[in-house]
Amino acid sequence: MNPQIITRPAFVVIGVKYQGRNENNEIPQLWDAFLPDRAAEITGKVNPNVAYGVEDHYDAETGEFDYVAGFEVSADTPTPDGMVRWQIPAQTYAVFKGSLPRIKEMYAHAYRQWLPQSNYRRHSGPEFEFYDEDFTPCKDKLDMYLYIPIIRK
C-alpha cells in the first residue's frame, strides 16, 4: 500500500475535540454524538458531505493526543460554542487509502513500514483522516484517506 504524495493548501476545520488515548473507543463515540447532534451548528462548510478527523499534539510518554471531528469551513466562519477551530497549515502529505474497519492497520503500515523505508520523515503539524462524499457508515461505504504530513529526509 504505497501512498500518493500530494501538497494541500492551508485550510480551517471546526468541530468537537477529544483529548486522550482512545482506549475505550472514545473517538467513534465522539463521531456518534457529533454528527446527529452538533454538526448542523457549523455554518460555512466548504463541502457538507466531507468530514475530517484531525489529530495533533501526540505525547509519546502518555500516549495521549488531541482529536477533532469536524468539517472544513471558510476562513470567516464563526466557531459555535463548545467547538474548536484548527488551522491546518499548507503541507505535503503521504495519503493512504483504506477503510474505517482497518484504520489501525493503516496507521501501523504508514508509521512502521512505509515511512521508515521511504525518502521521507514525519513533518510537524496535524495529520488527518479524510472522509469523502462516498463515506456512508450506514451503507457500508467505509473508504477513507489518511493524510500524514511529510518532508524529505
Features:
153 residues, alpha+beta, Multidrug-efflux Transporter 1 Regulator Bmrr, Chain A, nine-stranded antiparallel sheet, 18% helix, globular
Instruction: Say which CATH homologous superfamily is assigned.
Output: Regulatory factor, effector binding domain
How would you sum up the major sheet? 9 strands, antiparallel
Radius of gyration: 15 Å
As for the CATH topology, it is Multidrug-efflux Transporter 1 Regulator Bmrr, Chain A
Order of helix and strand elements from N to C terminus: EEHEEEEHEEE
Count every helix, treating DSSP H or I runs of 4 or more residues as helices: 2
Count of domain modules: 1
- For the termini, the CA-CA separation is 20 Å
Q: What characteristic shape results from the CA principal axes? A: globular
CATH hierarchy class name: Alpha Beta
The CATH level-2 architecture is identified as Alpha-Beta Barrel
Q: Beta fraction of the residues? A: 35-45%
Average pLDDT rating: 93
Total E-strand runs: 9
Low-confidence stretches: none
- Structural class, by secondary structure, is alpha+beta
Helical proportion? 10-25%
Your description of this structure?
The chain is an alpha+beta fold and 153 residues long. The chain has a single domain (4-152), classed as Alpha-Beta Barrel (Multidrug-efflux Transporter 1 Regulator Bmrr, Chain A), CATH 3.20.80.10. 18% of the residues lie in helices and 41% in strands. The protein is built from two helices and nine strands, in the order ββαββββαβββ. It has helices at 26-37, 103-117; strands at 4-8, 11-20, 51-56, 65-73, 84-88, 91-99, 120-122, 127-131, 143-152. Strands 1, 2, 3, 4, 5, 6, 7, 8 and 9 form a nine-stranded antiparallel β-sheet that branches. The protein is globular, with a radius of gyration of 15 Å.
